Structure formats: structure tokens, C-alpha cells
Amino acid sequence: MLNKDCHHDCNQSYCPFAQDNNNANRYVCLKCGTEREINRYSSGFGSFLMLLLSLFIAFQLLVTYERQNNQPQQESPISSQS
Fold first, then answer.
1. 47-73: per-residue pLDDT in tens?
2. Which of 32, 54, 61, 75 is least surrounded, with the fewest CB atoms within 10 Å of its CB?
3. Residue 77 to residue 2: CA distance in whole angstroms
């Protein structure tokens, strides 16, 4: 957002931004001093992949558990009492 005290005729789409030498993600307008952070938030793609992987593993465990419970269990032979 632009400073309300900005006396220059620039806006965010036409500000002459310059990159900060110490921070590659920070840009500052040379006229009005407006700051922009390009990569303010870390990429959520890695988190999304972890979520998908976790859901896949949980689904596989659930399917395996259901298969084990639905198989007919072999009954052990009952020894006759004499």
C-alpha cells in the first residue's frame, strides 16, 4: 500500500522499485519508499505434498487393516478330550 503522505505521482504498479542488497526478497520504491516483500510466505507446495503423502499412507494402512479383519480366520483344531 502506498503511503498517504506520498507526494509523488507513483502508484504500486508504476513505482520504480529497487531491490535491497541485503535482502533479495525486499523491494523499495525510490520515490515514495513503499516496501514490497516478494516471497513473504514460504512455499506451501512442500506442505501440500506432505499432506498428500500422509493421506496416502493413512489410506493404505486402513485398507490393509480392513483386509486383515475381513479374511476368514483359520480355526485351530480342537483337541478331543479322552
1. 888 999 999 999 999 999 998 888 776
2. 75
3. 83
